[in-house]
Amino acid sequence: MGVLRIHRLVFLICTVLLIAPTIFSVFTTEANAESRSVREYRIKAAFLYNFARFTEWPADKFRDETTPMILCVMGVDPFGPVLENTVLSKKIKGRSIIVKRTATIDNLRACHVLFVSSSEWNNLPEIVESLSGAAVLTTGDMDRFAKRGGIIKLTTKGNKIRFEINPKAAERAGVKLSSYLLSLATIITEDD
Amino acid sequence: MRFCSGSESVHNAVGRCGKLLMPGSHTAGGYGAARILTIIRHVDMALMRVAVFGLLLLPLPMIASAQESKQYQEQPDEFSELNLEQLMEVDVVSINVLGTHTHLEGEWMFAYQFMFMRMDGSRDGTNRLSDSDVLADFPVTPTNMTMKMHMPMVMYAPSDDLTLMAMLPYIKLEMDHVLGPLSPKPGARFTTKSEGFGDLNVGALYTFYRKNFDEHRLIFKAALSVPTGSIDKKDVLANPAQGKQKLPYPMQLGSGTFDLHPAITYVGEMGDWAWGGEVEATIRLGENSNDYTLGDRYKISGWVNWKWTDWLAPFVRIDGEVWENIDGADPDLNPAVVPTADPGRRAGEQIDLLAGVNLYALGGPLKGQRLAIQGRLPVYRSLDGPQLETDWQITVGWQWVF
């Protein structure tokens, strides 16, 4: 009977050790338990960079030729360091790009591109209203973002990223989107 | 692609399409203490050997967990070099020839596998037996058996973490026999056949843990097999004058009981490599209408895949499995005539080596479809015999995700 206990114990130990390192990391590191992977946000970060390439801002949005492009994230940041890596060494129309994160509406008018996290679902109407005429390209991936007044909504369809554009929201904000960008998008009206 | 691969009988061969590790035991009424102890001793000896091979798998998750992902250190991201149209063609979830991705919400998958298994000769313990050895104690002995199994499967992912699955096998069995000096017709040979649908398997896979952006995952599998396969197949035996008789246990198409198939699977992927390990069980619930319950099964697996090219990934795998004897007995079978009719000669333990290749269509009309070919060879077998032993098995599978 003692031998039987040893056999069972060895089997149990081997089985637990097979998966123990993975289980152990649950309690020691912050695991990404979300179903959306960072790969998705790496791709979306690249989309944000490209949206900025095909957007025009009014001249007074930049103080001078050296004023950088400011890319902001409001709310719970789904990108992590991906956004910085995406714009590293990149320029848009000769301007460098800096990334800022903010939790309040007060500083948003200084942004050129703003990604609104889905954590700000309830605040979106206030955000949109506060940025009227501020020449901020608002983007996001929350449900019905474009229909609720955001300019560009990123979506996932069939394992690919797509985007919707609300032209009226862009007009209200005071930014001009290129026809190329509009041709690739699904056009959304706020009456849909 | 994971295969539904077989062992010594059909109801054991279909038991791995969706499993959940749920501790439990089947109804075991009528056991004496001595018999329970014998079974425990038998299972433990086998598990000990399986555990030794499990030790070989220990370094894999440890090494993987110890490494930091270097993707997100200060380097320009590769996607930033793509234009908008190129970005719109990038897969959110990297689907590649390694096949380790879980299904995305709303995704369907159809799969079909064909398995051929050959069993030849008998074994008792680790000793190979000749037909004459078996016929010293039995009037009839099986000499060889072939199994052909068609396994269509459908899967659907209602969410990124949950995938539902269903599989219904179609099975063709054929077993050759020879009569010995204890029978009325020594030297006579006959063949029995059975064919039909096996037990329906329904289940779910749930990814309950992810680390480092899906470089490591733990998947909980739960499946239930429904007794749709026949346990009353008949065929003409040695004496045609007697008409069709009930076939022994290995020739039946189902278990006759609802069975649980629990498992926990670890999957890791980094660069061109993928690896994993799995612990699974088959737990029989209750007794079937022929007054018996097939033995429970326990298995440990480990595998390594390598992405040789974007469309070709070879893999190797090792399986260790233990299965128990039948509890009870079919009253229509006489265990003294042929070993396959003896419920006490169905248990065993086995270690198999598997190798194969995954092929993945990157483009063209077959884009996204996957083909896999796998061969299995036993490297260790110990059977409660005399019992037919598996010689080799080959499986070919096709998978289409849309």
Briefly summarize what is shown.
Chain A is an alpha/beta fold. Chain A is built from six helices and ten strands. Chain A has helices at residues 2-28, 38-53, 82-87, 124-130, 167-173, 179-184, and strands at residues 55-56, 69-74, 91-92, 95-102, 113-116, 137-140, 152-157, 160-165, 176-177, 186-187.
Write the layout of secondary structure elements.
The complex is a heterodimer of chains A (192) and B (402).
Chain A: H1 2-28, H2 38-53, E1 55-56, E2 69-74, H3 82-87, E3 91-92, E4 95-102, E5 113-116, H4 124-130, E6 137-140, E7 152-157, E8 160-165, H5 167-173, E9 176-177, H6 179-184, E10 186-187
Parallel strand pairs in A: 2-4, 2-5, 5-6, 6-7, 8-10
Antiparallel strand pairs in A: 1-9, 3-4, 7-8
Chain B: H1 10-13, H2 33-55, H3 59-66, H4 84-87, E1 108-125, E2 127-129, H5 131-135, E3 140-156, E4 162-167, E5 170-179, E6 189-197, E7 200-211, E8 216-226, E9 234-236, E10 244-246, E11 258-260, E12 263-270, E13 273-285, E14 292-293, E15 297-306, E16 312-323, E17 327-328, E18 348-360, E19 369-401
Antiparallel strand pairs in B: 1-2, 1-3, 1-19, 3-4, 3-5, 4-7, 5-6, 7-8, 8-11, 8-12, 9-10, 11-13, 12-13, 13-15, 14-17, 15-16, 16-18, 18-19
